[in-house]
Each structure stands twice: as C-alpha cells, then as structure tokens.
Design goal:
Blueprint (H helix, E strand, L loop, with lengths): L1 E9 L2 E9 L7 E7 L6 H8 L5 E6 L6 H6 L5 E3 L6 H10 L5 E4 L4 E2 L2 H13 L6 E10 L5 E12 L20 E10 L9 H11 L6 H13 L3 H13 L5 H17 L3 H10 L8 H13 L3 H13 L17 H13 L3 H14 L4 H15 L1
Parallel strand pairs: 3-4, 3-6, 4-5, 8-10
Antiparallel strand pairs: 1-2, 6-9, 7-10, 8-9
C-alpha cells in the first residue's frame, strides 16, 4: 500500500489529500531441495523453478559429482548435511534455512512443466497469506503418450511461519493443518535412472537394529518394502501387524489389504488374495483400483462373470483425488473398458466386446491394444 500526500493553503487552512494505491501482494517462495549426486537432473529441475522461486535452498548430503557446481549456477545458498539415514531431518534442515513466505519442497528429478509454471505464477499473484498449505498434484508414472497413470496430491507449499515439521525417516511426510487448498498445478516426476533399490529397506533394517519403534505409518512402508523385495511371508506378517494396530490412516489400510492380496497372489493362494482385496471394503467404499485387481484375479481364473462384475463396478466408482490416496486414473476408465472387452470376447459376446473396445479407444485412441482389437473385430465382421 502506497500513501502519497499533497497539500495546499486555501483560506488559511492546510488541506491534506491522501491518495491510496492498492498493490496486490505477491507471495514469496523458498524452494528447498535435498540432493546427492544429482548432476544428471538437477539443472533441469532448477531451470523449471527459477522463474517461480524467490530463493533456492540446496542441502547436499554428500555429493561426489558436480551437483554442487550445477547448483551454484542458480543459488549461493548451498549447505552440507551429514547423512544419517533420515530424510525428515534433512528436509527439516532445508526448511530451517528458508526465509520467504512459503517453503516448497522439490526432488532433483522433479520438474514443473511450462503450462504448470504459468499456473504457478498465477497462484503466486492470488494466494492469500492466510493459506497454510497448498496441495498439488504429483504425477509420477506415465503411459507412452505422456498421460499420467499414477498421481496423487502432496503437501507442496507450506507457510513458513506455521512451522511445519517433516516426520518419518523414510517416505517422510508433513501433516497438513490450518487453511488447506487444493490446486491442479502438477509437479512432474521424471526419473532418468533408478535409485538404489535396496536403500529404503536397508534404512528400515538399520532402524530395527537400533531398537527404533516404528509408528503405524512406518510399519506400513516397511511392509511395502518387504513386498517389493519379494519377502512375501515377512510382508504378510508386517502388513497384518500394521492393520492390527487399528491406528493406520484409512488409505494406508486399504493399500495394506491390496498388498496382502498381491502377496498371496505371488504365493498362488488365490482364495486369500481375493479375501484380502474384499477386506479393503471394511475401510471404505470400493476403490476402482481394488475393483480392477479383483477383476484381474477372476479373469485369470476364467470366472468371467465375476470379472465382468468387478470391472463394471470399477467404472461406477467415483474418483476422489483429494482423498490423499494413490490414484491410477486408468482404473476408472481405460483398464475396465479394455478388460471388459476381453471378458465379453471370452464368452463370445463380440458385439459387447467391440463396444467396450471402442470405449477404451475413446480414452486412448493411439493405444496399440485398442488398435489391435479394432483390427480383430473388423476381421470378425468380415466373416
């Protein structure tokens, strides 16, 4: 707000005229990153935020490549942090160095695409300072056409004065509070090379050796790492232990039931696999992702009527991106359409099968499976 004063004498009185010009305040952002040996991707990430960030904080946890040199082209606020198997401590250290209105975390292999950069600038111009948290989409997996096939909301902008604190040594998180808004702006995860696949499990194992007692959330992620490493019996035990705490977040409870289904599927125990997927319904209405899993299991058992039921149910599910769950968008349209095509083809209902293939084609007109099936049905019609 600018006050401009002018005065003049008139009949021995001094009149003061005040002109008030309202200037909209634009919020400021500290982009906070923790990095190690990210020379292949860091420049790409920093370039995508340099027009958005008012300050860039780089916390290096032990790089031996040119990461710090690349970072120095964008900021002089580069700090060393001795790695201690705890992502939250590193992230909290990065936040402690921030000085702007909001802290924004970013991984080195993340980027903000051009269209999202434009929307981000609009957000900076309009966001009210009474907002504590801005949730943004995190797109992490994509189909061949670049369409997100795995997405979820993450707490992305956090008001610095509200003193948010990261928790969890692996899969760290901040619990949103205060005024929370959801934005369609997306952060795009573009990994060039796989990280050390054993890192997270090793951290969990080391914490157990040190006598660390896991929170329910840490139990869930430990069990998930066991599954990823094909320790199915151990994973089953840990997922059940997590569920038995009755303290898990709803979406993690549902995911735990899914992973228990996957574990039993890998052990060729289809009855238990289906049972655990159905158990997810104890926590909330069906998720399309679970319905597609059930449909796939019944399809493999050649129980086509049951498979049709679950794929059709998937199509009726309401997608709720703001639930905090991991969302597979294709489970709400393309996958059930394509699988219903296969199911109806298996029972020789070619007309209905073609209908669902056409529906799948509306979702992905250049998809090879759709195009293959289209040619297949054209051949059938010629007979």
């Amino acid at each position: 707000m600018i006050h401009r004063l002018s005065g003049c004498y008139n009949n021995h009185f001094f009149y003061i005229h005040t002109y008030i010009i309202l200037v909209k305040y634009m919020i400021t952002i500290s982009v906070c990153m923790i990095v190690k040996n990210e020379e292949d991707v860091l420049g790409r990430a920093l370039k995508s935020v340099q027009g958005i960030a008012d300050e860039i904080i780089i916390v290096d946890t032990g790089s031996t490549d040119s990461t710090k040199e690349i970072a120095s082209s964008y900021t002089n606020k580069i700090y060393d942090f001795e790695w201690c198997d705890d992502f939250s401590k590193a992230r909290n250290y990065s936040f402690s160095k921030a000085t702007k209105d909001y802290c924004m975390w970013l991984d080195a292999d993340d980027v903000i695409l051009e269209e999202d950069q434009k929307e981000f600038m609009k957000l900076k111009e309009t966001l009210s300072l009474d907002t504590s948290v801005v949730m943004m989409r995190y797109n992490t997996h994509f189909d061949n056409n670049g369409k997100p096939i795995f997405t979820y909301y993450r707490e992305r902008l956090l008001k610095r004065k509200d003193q948010f604190y990261w928790e969890g040594f692996v899969h760290e998180v901040i619990s949103p509070r205060g005024k929370v808004i959801y934005s369609d702006i997306a952060i795009t995860h573009k990994k060039l090379k796989a990280a050390n696949p054993h890192r997270n499990l090793m951290i969990f194992k080391n914490k157990l050796k040190d006598g660390v007692i896991f929170s329910p959330r840490e139990m869930f992620y430990y069990a998930r790492e066991l599954y990823y490493h094909e320790y199915y019996d151990e994973a089953i035990s840990e997922f059940k232990r997590f569920l038995n705490t009755h303290q898990g977040w709803r979406e993690n409870n549902i995911s735990a039931c899914q992973f228990l289904g996957y574990c039993y599927y890998q052990k060729n125990d289809m009855q238990q696999a289906v049972s655990w997927l159905l158990n997810s319904l104890c926590y909330d209405v069906p998720r399309a992702e679970v319905c597609c899993d059930l449909g796939q299991y019944f399809y493999e058992l050649k129980c086509y009527e049951q498979a049709i039921f679950w794929y059709a149910t998937a199509l009726s599910c309401q997608r709720n991106d703001e639930s905090g769950a991991f969302i597979s968008p294709d489970c709400y349209d393309y996958i059930p359409y394509m699988q219903l095509c296969l199911c109806y083809d298996a029972i020789k209902d070619y007309k209905t099968a073609k209908f669902y293939n056409d529906m799948a084609g509306q979702c992905k007109p250049n998809d090879p499976s759709y195009l293959h099936n289209k040619h297949y049905f054209e051949k059938i019609n010629e007979k």
